[in-house]
C-alpha cells in the first residue's frame, strides 16, 4: 500500500513540506521510492510558466540524445536547473547520473500557434524522447509541460530527500501544488516510470490502492489515445481516464467519479439524470475501476481533487488552514505540517463524493 | 425349429435393453401405460413347468400362459432409455439398460432409408470440457481485499442493446456544468446476465412454456432479478403479446418467420414493448441446418400461433433473400428497429463457426449503430430437433469463439459496443454459475441457456443418448410434446418453482465468485482472473497457465 499526499497553497511552498508530509506516514510504505510532481511553479521557474519544462533523469548519453531531438524539432533551451546533489556515502538511492530540469521555448513557427497545437506537439515530443531513451535505459522522461516539474527516484524517501537537498527549504525550487508518493512496491519491478504521480498534458494523478479492473482498463485505454502508454503501474489507468474524461471528452470533473466508480444501477434509476449516467456507465464500462483506491488528481488549471473507491477501502483525509490545503493518506501527515489547524474541520471524503480545491482554496464537495 | 431370421431387429440391436424381472412384477401395467414411446408391451408367454407329485420323481410338464412385459422389437418404437418405466414401477421390476453393443445407427438407417432425427444434444462422447480446465485463479487478498458476498452489493447486470463509443455520445454541458443529451441514443436494457435461451412454443409444451414465462415473471417481480426469456421462433400467444409481461420477452424471428404475422398484428395493441428482438441466423448445435418441428407436435394451438397447417415445419437454414452481412444489417435490423420505433434493441444470433469473428467484425463496424447484441451459440447445447448427423458432427465449441470475438473487439478498441452473449453447453454439468462466470471473464457480457432449463423442469435426457426424443412429440415428462396426456404429467407450478430456485441459487453463486476477485460489477473481460490447467487452452485463450 503506497502512501500519497498533496499540498495546495496560496503561497509557494518547498518540497521539504511534502517530504515531511510523507515521512510521518512511514509505516505505510516500504522505502522503495519517492516521487513528486510540482505544478504552478515558483522560484527560478516562476518567470517561465508559459514555457514547457523537461523533467528527466538520464545518463550523459541520454541527455545528449534528448537535447538533440528537441533541438532538431526547433525547441530552444531558455533555462536549466540542475539540482545540487549531496551524494553522501551510505545513502539508499539508486541515482541516475543526471537530473535535468530544462525549460524550452517553442519552435519559432509555433510561437503564435493555437494552444492545442502546442499541447499536441509537447506530448509527441515527450513520447519521442521516451521512445529514443528506452531501449538502453539511457533516460526516463517524466514530463515535458509548462509549469510542471517531476522528480522520481528509487530508494529510501529520506535519503532521496537528502541526496537532492530537499530537506532544507529554499525559495529557488517551489510550487503552489505538490503531489507526492512514497512507494510500497508490491506488484511491479522497481522501475522509475512505475512511481506515481503520473503526468500527462497538465493532468497529474496518484493513487493508493489496487485496480482490479487493470486489464480491462489497459485493453481499452491502449486504443483510446496515443499518450496512453507504459502501464507500469495499475494505477496509471486512473490518470488516463482522468485525461480522457476531462480533456478528450470535455466532461466536467464531477463525472470522473461516475466513470471510475459508477453508481449501482438501483441508485442510478432514482436519479433525474439517469439517462446520462446509464450512458456513461455503459459506454465507459471498461474504464471502471473495481478495487480499493484513493485517488488524488490535479487538473491543468491546478484544481486539486481527491476521491475514493465506492467501498471506501483506502483511507484519505483533507485538512486545511487559511493558506494551505493538504490531502493525505493518513492524518498524521497533516498533523506534521499543519499542526495548528482546526482538525475538527478535517474532511474524510465520502465513498460517493469528489472533494475539489480550486485556486482560491475553496473546497467543494460534489456528491456523485 | 423355426427358420432363423437373423436380420430381424432384437433388443440387442437397440441402444437400450429392458431388464425385466418377472418374479417381482405384479403386472400392474403402470410401465406399459407410462411409456410414451410404446417401447414395451404386454405379452403372454407360454411357459413349461416340470413338476412331480409322487414320492419318487415322476416328471410331468405343465404348460401355462404367463403375462409378461416385453421390449418391443421395432425401430419405430424403440426404447429411449428414459427410465419412466423404472420411475413408475412400484416393485423395481423393470429398468432400461444401456446396450454398448447397439447396432442402432446402422439398423435405423438401413430399415428406415432416412437419416436419424432426434432431440438436440451432442451424443458423441466428449472429452473434458474446456471450461472445466479453467479455474478462477486470481484471489484478492490483503492489499486488494475480497468482498463479502453476503454483505456487499453487487451489480449483476448486462447490457442488451447498442452501446455507443464514448466520443459518439451526444452529450453537451449545461450552464450548471451538467451533462445533457442532445439527441436520442439507441435503446439499451440492463438485464440479468443469464437469459433463458430461445425455445419455441411449438417445441415446448404449452405447460412448459407457461411455466418458464411464469418463472420469469416471478423472478422479475418478486425476486428483483431482471431475467429475460427468448420466445424462440414460432410466435407468442396473443394474450401474452397484449399483456404487460411482454416486457420480459425477447421475440425471435428466425428463417421460417413463423408467428410474425400475429406479432405484427398485435403491435397496435401492445401495452409494453418487448424486451428485445433476436434475429436468429444460426443455431450452434446444428449450424447450417434449420429447425425441425415435426407434424406430431404441430397441435391446434401451435397452428393458430404460427399460422400454419398441421404439417412438418422446417425452418430453412438461412433467411431466404439475405446473403450478406451488410444486407442483413440493412434489411433486418433497420426494419425491426423501425417497427418498434427504435425503442427496442435488436440483436442477432449466429452459430459459432470459423466465420463468426468476421461476422462480428462486420457488425461492429455497423454505421447505423443498430446492432444491439451478438448472440453466439456453440455446439454442446441445443434442444430442438434435427438430424443426428448435424447434431453430432457440425459446429464449433463456444469458448474459444467467444474469446476470439472479444479479442477482435479489443484489437479495435471497441469492446462492449455490441454486447456479446454466448451459449452452447453452458451449465452442462449442472453448475451454470461457474460456466457463466468464466465466460464473462473471457469477454461475454452474458450467457443464455436452454437445455439446462429443460433439465430444471425434469427432462430426463442427457448427452449420453438417453431420451433425446424431443422431436417425436412423445416427451415422457411433458416438456417437449403437445399430447395432452403427456403434457399433463408436467406440473407447471413445480417447474416454475425449480427455475426460480435455480436462478436464486445461481445468483448467490455468481456473487460467491465475484467476491473473491474483488469485483462488485460483472468482470467482463477480466481474463486475468482465470487460470488454465491445460497449456493449449491457456495459450489459445490467452490466460495464465498453472500446473
Ligand atoms: S425406458 Fe422409457 S422408453 Fe424405454 S421402456 Fe421405459 S419408459 Fe419406455
Ligand atoms: S425434453 Fe423430453 S423428450 Fe426431450 S430429452 Fe428431455 S425428457 Fe426426453
UniProtKB/TrEMBL annotation, chain A:
PROSITE patterns: GATASE_TYPE_2. It comes from the Bacteria. Residues 2-360 form the Glutamine amidotransferase type-2 domain. InterPro entries: GATase_2_dom (IPR017932), Ntn_hydrolases_N (IPR029055). CDD domains: GlxB (cd01907). This is Glutamate synthase (NADPH) GltB1 subunit. The lineage of its organism: Bacteria, Pseudomonadati, Thermodesulfobacteriota, Desulfuromonadia, Desulfuromonadales.
From TrEMBL, chain B:
It catalyses: 2 L-glutamate + NADP(+) = L-glutamine + 2-oxoglutarate + NADPH + H(+). [4Fe-4S] cluster 2 binds at residues 79, 82, 85. InterPro entries: 4Fe4S_Fe-S-bd, 4Fe4S_Fe_S_CS, Aldolase_TIM, GltB, Glu_synthdom. SUPFAM superfamilies: 4Fe-4S ferredoxins (SSF54862), FMN-linked oxidoreductases (SSF51395). Its EC number is 1.4.1.13. [4Fe-4S] cluster 1 binds at residue 89. It is an enzyme of class 1 (oxidoreductase). GO terms for molecular function: 4 iron, 4 sulfur cluster binding; glutamate synthase (NADPH) activity; metal ion binding. The keyword Cytoplasm does not apply. Residues 16-45, 70-99 form the 4Fe-4S ferredoxin-type domain. GO terms for biological process: glutamate biosynthetic process. Pfam families: Fer4, Glu_synthase. Keywords: 4Fe-4S, Amino-acid biosynthesis, Glutamate biosynthesis, Iron, Iron-sulfur, Metal-binding. Belongs to the glutamate synthase family. This is glutamate synthase (NADPH). It comes from Geothermobacter ehrlichii. The lineage of its organism: Bacteria, Pseudomonadati, Thermodesulfobacteriota, Desulfuromonadia, Desulfuromonadales.
